[in-house]
Every structure is written in C-alpha cells, then in structure tokens.
Amino acid sequence: MGLMYIFPINEVEESDRIDLITNPIDQKKTLVLKTYGLPMIFWGYLAACLTVIGAMWLAIHAVIEKILTYQDPTLIFLGLLVKYTLILSPIVLLGFFFYEKKIHKSGLILKIVYKVFFIPIAFKTIKMDDSSALVVDHFMDSPNMAKIHSKAELKGFENKGYFELHAKSGGKNIFIDRHSRKIDLEKMKDLLSRY
Asked: Model's pTM, two decimal places?
C-alpha cells in the first residue's frame, strides 16, 4: 500500500503529518510519521462506486427478499451472499479512505501501527540491530523486457519497479514501506535515522 499511502519526508514542510513527542521521564524523543490519505480524485471514484452499488441495491432488494423466502438452501445462500456483498462493499471501500499507517521511531525501536477508521488493527515492533539498520532496496517483480531489447521506441515501456525500505533486525530484513521514487525513501530513511 506504500505506493498509494505516502509518508512525509520533510520535517519543516510537512509538519502536519510529523509529530515529535518527548517522554517526560527520560527526555527521549519519539518521531511519529503518519501517512497521507488518498488524493481528492479518489473521493470522486468512491462516489461513483457508491452510486452504482446503491442503484444495484434498489434494483435487486425486492428480488433478494423474495429469494430468501424459498426453502432451497442454495437459493438462500446465494441471496444472503448477494445481500451481504452489497452491504459490506461500501464499508470496505470507505475503509480505504480511513486507512492510516504510523511509524514511531525512538532509538533502536521502530513501531508500525496500522489503523482503519481510527482503530488500531495491527502492530509491528522492530528492534533494529543498530542506528544504520535502515536500507533501501530496489524491487522488480517481472523481467524488464523493454530494457532487454533496448530499442528507442520501447523506452517508455521500461518497467522501473519500485523501492522498499527495510529495517535489519536479528539478521532479517523487515519490510517497512515502499515507494516508486528512491529519493523519497532515502529522505524518509535519513529522517528516521536522526531519532
């Protein structure tokens, strides 16, 4: 999801998505990075999807209720399946708009929190090996055929892949985030390394 939900990379310009918390007991500072939401154009896509789902619900609601009155278990199963799909689809779609990922970094401890509708649903705590344990790796999941053939007309079709930020912990590389631009992950790595 890191290709859609972007983390901030500049403390000064993006201070609304970056918090610096000081622990009153030991005066240790914790950096908190919060992802940006989806761009406004996606709200238009959501409105279009919800309109289509609403029209489908209005068109099929009476038919589903009729199917649920039959005694055939297959028809009842199919009726319930369609009914709950139409009910849960808007909730799932809306969940994408209220998804947030937070990174808390203090010393060698890195904590990642995943939230949907402001409710934490998953946590990951990483104890990094040392302060330079953050690395940016290039990732490409398919062969770059346009680059292999190296023709000028295929230049625009080259697969550039994406980049992943990992933390080294106990000899393992643990995934933190991904981005299509290496420079942005490098800046995020430098920001996290300072705290």
From this structure: 0.75
